[in-house]
Amino acid sequence: MSIRIDHISKSYGKVNALDDISIQVDQGELFGLIGPDGAGKTTLFRILTTLLLPDHGSASVAGYDIIADFKAIRKQVGYMPGRFSLYQDLTVEENLRFFATIFGTTIAENYDLIRDIYVQIEPFKNRRAGKLSGGMKQKLALSCALIHKPKVLFLDEPTTGVDPVSRKEFWEMLKRLQDKGITILVSTPYMDEAALCDRIALIQDGKILEIDTPKAIVEHYPKPIFDVGAHNTYLLIEKLNAYAHKHSVFPFGEYIHYTDQRDGFDPLELMAYLKNEGLQNIHIERTKATIEDTFMELAKQ
Amino acid sequence: MKRFIGFVQKEFYHIFRDRRSLFILFGMPVAQIMLFGFAITNEINNVDIAILDRSQDASTKEIISKISSSEYFSILQHIKEEAEIEEVFKKGKVKAVLYFEKEFSKKLIKQHTAKVQIVTDATDPNVANTISNYINSILSNYQEEQNRAITLDYQIVPQSRMVFNAELKSVYMFVPGVMTVILMLVSAMMTSISITREKELGTMEILLVSPLNPFQVIIGKVFPYIFLSIINAAAIVILSIFVFHVPVNGSLFLLGLESVLFIVTSLALGILISTISATQQTAMMISLMGLMLPVILLSGFIFPISSMPVPLQVISNIVPAKWFIIIVKGIMLKGVGISIVWKETLVLLGMTLLFIGLSVRKYKIRLE
């Protein structure tokens, strides 16, 4: 067991940031915390990295208690906060060397671990960190978090504000790190990234909605889902919401994800209703549930 | 040790890459000492005065020539009417008017009393006072010369001697003050800002989640400023010796040690400020309002503590700068040693330990 979270609660004044959270992450697992802004992801990260104390509950990271052995944890983990937190007035190389030094190691010693990532920013090693693009900043931050060969890596929304290509590359890098035996806890507001994790926890308003593999979570979705499209998406949403039997209506890419309250739902019936309401080019098709659908469904309850 | 060197190296990068902090570190000290040394002064030199002479006789002419030949005054104009006095003051051209009554010589010889009025523009009371004193002393000097032949039955001859600063140069007073202000500014403000910057930029979060313990972080942050402040203190002393010819009568070594002590006091204050402020702005405001003002107003730098109201005198005791100024004045001007300033040194030492103790207690090993 690499990370064990046991009934952790934390509140700021009257706001419950975390409410009785329990999660267990295995050695070498890539675990995702999926939830919108304000769900409590950052608070959980800060508790696990010994930056905050929980109000109730206990937790351990790499076998060390987060309260009693906080010093040991600080030596063993790599932490990449949500906000870019490197020294903007230091160059790429100076940042990396600084973090290597304070962890009592050198760039050369652990270069193997960061090579894949660092080679991409190495051409800019004399550039100030503040002048890097979003994707490069994130690669540098990951290099700095990895330079001391941590046992557990905490990445708080590492891909927020990063272009799609860099995001994809970033997740490929995480997979490679996982192969090297590093346990990774990553949080993201992007549901599409959730599918890339071994297991995920859906979290909202400080509560865990579900913990499982992405595949299982999607399969648990209780109702058939339909992609609905028409010439006027805005009107379509309005009319679907007005439909007496609707269960849920969510915009999803170019289509609307629709579920019906009834078990024996006939799409033709909906087609007729929409036509009657003046919509054209109507398209209704059965589709698979995504993690986002599950999340929305769970969040509704 | 390697960690410490790495950390200090990083701090130096921060300092040398930030133009603002470079300016505060090196521009301010030079600018301040020059300003205080040359521009802000209580001495009078070539003050313009006007003369209203209604006698125009031998005595008044002699007095006038005595005054105009002194380096302190230059006679800008002669006026004819009493009504003009207010006018020339309003124009602001002259600081004083010397008004001789009619038949000055005659009265002096026959009645043994003649009157001359010194009218000064007291919008600046200190200057007015000084001018009046200077003219008075020129007049009494003249009187003495006239009376040399006559022996009076009784005579009190006051002889004042100004020790430690015989020429009453105000730069003697300002150098210890400016040194105090600069060391305080550089040490306390710069460290508090540099520590809060880490909090504000989020890098403190990463530093906390590292094997560095808070003590190492603080020492690493403070060390460069100790070094730079010592350079600053040395620069100020060198400037004052060679540019303003301020003597260092006591031991330079002791002066150096006391300066290091005061630098550490200020740094401890800076750390304390950083523990209570979340942003660089707050740290700067607290440093400026909470430190600079007391240093300038309550330390005896500009306004003598003995002439303050009692409550302020009491408050001045908690201003570290007050003690340091006493020490510096003692060593530089009076040439005293540790046997005289040990009490002040002890007070500073006590304050330093208190500030360090408080900062250690207030320093957070976590984010809240």
Automatic annotation (TrEMBL), chain B:
Membrane topology: Multi-pass membrane protein
Domain ABC transmembrane type-2: 132-366
Molecular function GO terms recorded: ABC-type transporter activity
Subcellular location: Cell membrane
Keyword Translocase in annotation: no
Keywords: Cell membrane, Membrane, Transmembrane, Transmembrane helix, Transport
Membrane-crossing residue ranges in chain numbering: 21-40, 171-195, 222-246, 252-273, 285-305, 340-360
InterPro entries noted in UniProt: ABC-2_transporter_component, ABC2_TM, ABC2_TM_bact-type
Pfam families on file: ABC2_membrane_3
GO cellular component: plasma membrane
Gene3D superfamilies found in the cross-reference section: abc type-2 transporter like domain
Family from the record: Belongs to the ABC-2 integral membrane protein family.
Official protein name in the record: ABC-2 type transport system permease protein
The organism of origin for this protein: Flagellimonas taeanensis
